[in-house]
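Please, structure for the following, as C-alpha cells.
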Amino acid sequence: MSDLAPSPAIALTPSAAARVAAIAGKQGKPPILRLSVEGGGCSGFQYRFGLSDAVAADDLAVETDGVTLVVDDMSLDLVRGGTVDFVDNLGGQAFKVDNPNATAGCGCGTSFSV
C-alpha cells in the first residue's frame, strides 16, 4: 500500500492564489477563480478565466491559501491533472495553465489542442 496521497484533479499554485486574492479584494468579490475551456483560439480550445460569485453544484473546487479554483465538468475533462499558475516576467503578467492533456499549443499560451 502506498503512502502517497492521490494527486488533485487540478491544482492552483500559491502565486496564482495570491494574485486572485489581490484582484478579488480590489473588486470586492469572493476569492473564487473560474477556469473554463471553450472552443476557439488558434489551436482549437482556449482557456477562459474570471472571478465567480459562487461555486456551482457541478463544479470541482480546489482551495489554495484561502482561494478557490472552480472548474466545470466539461472543462475538467480537458485540463485534468493540470496546474494553474500566475507568471510575471518580461513578457507580461498572466494566468497560465500547465495542461498535461494538451498535445499542441500556440505562442500566446491561451490556446491548445488535445
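The chain has a mean pLDDT of 85. The CA atoms of residues 79 and 99 lie 6 Å apart.
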